[in-house]
């Protein structure tokens, strides 16, 4: 079922002229009752093929997580240099061009390079406002001021399962590539659970601290786009500016990839020293590299299982899976708990099946998606 679904062409592919030499793309790979959900990536050099690949990944994520929602993705390819005024105009033009799709059921949220303010700006340009189901205690913009860490916390839930099932230290030394929403949320959870984050990378380079960083202080002084304030670092911290990939070769218990795709493949997998690899970004590890790590007995959390927090949380709310009458704090606790439970269940299945049969990891993931799709179809038939 899922194998065939992932091979299909997108249901919808749209290109938008955003002005200032910028192009926008909206791709709905699958539609469920005319609806699809995905984030909006903003980056120079982004292509339509990139967005199609990401949209297909959203279909995979929703199948794995059991969320009843079509998979989509949107993106804006920015010129190499753009002023703040031009960037705002590009966002406005994207919103105006995407308006019929937003109003028609293709939701465009945040992704790499797209802040909540960016999302709210192009939503306003489209005259679009997310209508949350009756009984949910938050407006959509207000919810994400508090629910933003959900993906990073979900990635941490996947790490917890890896930690329990592989030969890792009780208090791990962790390296994290990327210090945006996902990286920060993961690092905070790890810090409070007694692990040491010893290496971090942002888009300026990497920093190292053998004793482990004080993550709450680091987060306090980080910029909104995840840039670590070097002026606030202790003199004992090693700073290496200009090389954002150096960190993936650091010796550590867990390497968390929370920045960009295509970081580890067959050509560099044998140089990775981490005892486990946690995929917090989209497509950061190739299939053959995944199988290489697993064949060595190293822990691995695939992206389609680990970093589905925002996608799954959105689907749960849109599909009315919450209890009406909850307070705002109860709604947050429910949202975080539901995502953590789903990810831990799916990680448990993935690890158990791989250890039992040692088949290619992609086959195990496809089986997991099929199982969850069949279960979801059965429950919908029963409810009907």
Strand order of the largest sheet: 9-8-7-6-10-11-12
SSE ordering: HEEEHEHEHHHEHEEHEEEHEHHHH
Kindly state the number of beta strands: 12
Count of the domains:
2
CATH superfamily descriptor of the largest domain: NAD(P)-binding Rossmann-like Domain
Distance between the termini: 22 Å
What do we call the CATH topology of the largest domain? Rossmann fold
Oligomer: single chain
Task: Output the radius of gyration.
Answer: 20 Å
Q: Summarize the amount of helix as a percent range.
A: 40-55%
CATH architecture of the largest domain: 3-Layer(aba) Sandwich
Name the structural class.
alpha/beta
Counted by DSSP, the helix tally is 13
CATH class of the largest domain: Alpha Beta
Which consecutive residue ranges, at least 5 long each, have pLDDT under 50?
Answer: 380-384
- Structural shape: globular
Major sheet attributes = 7 strands, mixed
The share of residues in extended strands comes to 15-25%
Structure description:
The chain is an alpha/beta fold and 384 residues long. The protein folds into 2 domains: 110 residues, 3-Layer(aba) Sandwich (Rossmann fold), CATH 3.40.50.10860; 191 residues, Rossmann fold (3-Layer(aba) Sandwich), CATH 3.40.50. The protein contains 13 helices and 12 strands. A 7-stranded mixed β-sheet has the order 9-8-7-6-10-11-12, with helices on both faces. The longest helix has 30 residues.
């Amino acid at each position: 079922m899922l194998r065939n679904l992932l091979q299909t062409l997108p249901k919808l592919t749209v290109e938008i002229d955003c002005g200032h030499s910028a192009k926008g793309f909206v791709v709905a790979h699958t539609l469920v009752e005319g609806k699809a959900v995905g984030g909006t990536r903003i980056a120079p050099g982004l292509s339509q093929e990139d967005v199609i690949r990401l949209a297909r990944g959203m279909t995979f994520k929703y199948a794995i997580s059991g969320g009843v929602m079509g998979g989509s993705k949107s993106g804006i390819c920015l010129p190499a240099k753009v002023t703040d005024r031009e960037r705002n105009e590009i966002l406005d033009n994207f919103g105006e061009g995407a308006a019929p799709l937003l109003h028609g059921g293709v939701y465009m949220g945040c992704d790499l390079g797209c802040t909540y303010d960016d999302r709210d700006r192009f939503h306003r340009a489209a005259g679009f406002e997310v209508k949350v189901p009756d009984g949910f205690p938050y407006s959509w913009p207000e919810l994400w001021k508090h629910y933003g860490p959900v993906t990073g916390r979900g990635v941490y839930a996947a790490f917890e399962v890896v930690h329990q099932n592989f030969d890792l230290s009780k208090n791990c030394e962790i390296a994290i590539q990327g210090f945006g929403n996902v990286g920060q949320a993961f690092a905070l959870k790890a810090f409070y659970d007694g692990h040491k984050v010893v290496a971090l990378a942002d888009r300026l380079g990497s920093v190292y601290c053998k004793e482990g960083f004080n993550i709450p202080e680091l987060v306090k002084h980080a910029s909104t786009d995840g840039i670590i304030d070097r002026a606030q670092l202790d003199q004992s911290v090693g700073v290496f500016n200009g090389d954002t990939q150096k960190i993936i070769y650091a010796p550590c218990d867990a390497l968390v990839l929370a920045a960009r795709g295509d970081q580890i493949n067959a050509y560099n997998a044998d140089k990775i020293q981490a005892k486990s690899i946690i995929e917090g970004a989209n497509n950061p590890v190739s299939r053959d590299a995944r199988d290489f790590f697993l064949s060595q007995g190293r822990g691995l959390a695939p992206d389609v299982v680990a970093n589905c927090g925002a996608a799954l949380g959105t689907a749960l709310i849109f599909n009315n899976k919450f209890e009406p009458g909850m307070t705002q704090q109860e709604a947050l606790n429910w949202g975080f708990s539901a995502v953590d439970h789903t990810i831990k269940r799916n990680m448990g299945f993935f690890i158990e099946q791989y250890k039992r049969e040692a088949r290619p990891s992609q086959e195990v993931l496809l089986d997991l998606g099929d199982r969850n799709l069949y279960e979801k179809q059965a429950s919908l038939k029963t409810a009907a």
